[in-house]
Amino acid sequence: MADVKKFDPRALVRAGLDKALESQQPLAVANVARLRRVHPDKTPAELIAYMNKIYVGTVTTTGAGAGAAAAVPNGVVQAPIAIAELLGFLEASVLYTLSVAEIHRLDLEDVELRRLLVTGVLIGNSASATMESVIGRTAPHWGKQIVRSIPMAAIKKANKVLGPRFITKWGAKQGVLVLGKQVPGFIGAVIGGGNSLFGWFVVKSARKILGPPPESWDEAVAAERPTAT
Q1: What are the sequence ranges of the domains in the chain?
Q2: In angstroms, rounded to a whole number, what is the distance separating the alpha carbons of residues 25 and 100?
Q3: 20 to 30 A Cα–Cα from 93, which one of 53, 85, 152, 191?
Q4: pTM of the model
């Protein structure tokens, strides 16, 4: 049982986010390119709708499996399974967010840009208030603004504010499942349903932050940020 106490949900979330931000960006680019080849007739909006279903289905299925395992009254079993489920959800959410951003033709080469966009999507409405307080202004669909007009110094400042808030939200709440030996076993059976709700929350949050997709692929290319010289 001592091994369970060694788990640090906050550190795991932080490390998992860092890893996903690095590894998922090229996968997101390749993912969108592959989907466009497989579904050449889909508009950007239709492709995002298709990705929404895949993403929510993936995190729901993963969460249901972890929920069934978490119902087993064994803290040693629950901890690593809950951690794996949390990190799997986080990785899928990063890939989904970056894939949607790729359809919007946002240049997310810098990891700080990716960090701000992803944490903003996962945190939700409070991220907009933070952006306004840190940057001094905000706007509908501010995800596009951070890429195209906000200085990097301001982006790094916002990340310093949102980072701890993200870890608190996800680390603390999921930590109850990871470390909480007092959680009734039956709660584990509904983790999958919770992941479905979280999944749709991410979908709605991404649309609110990034805005409606381009109407056509030509429009998406035209809106692409110019390469710096």
Answers
A1: 2-213
A2: 11
A3: 152
A4: 0.77
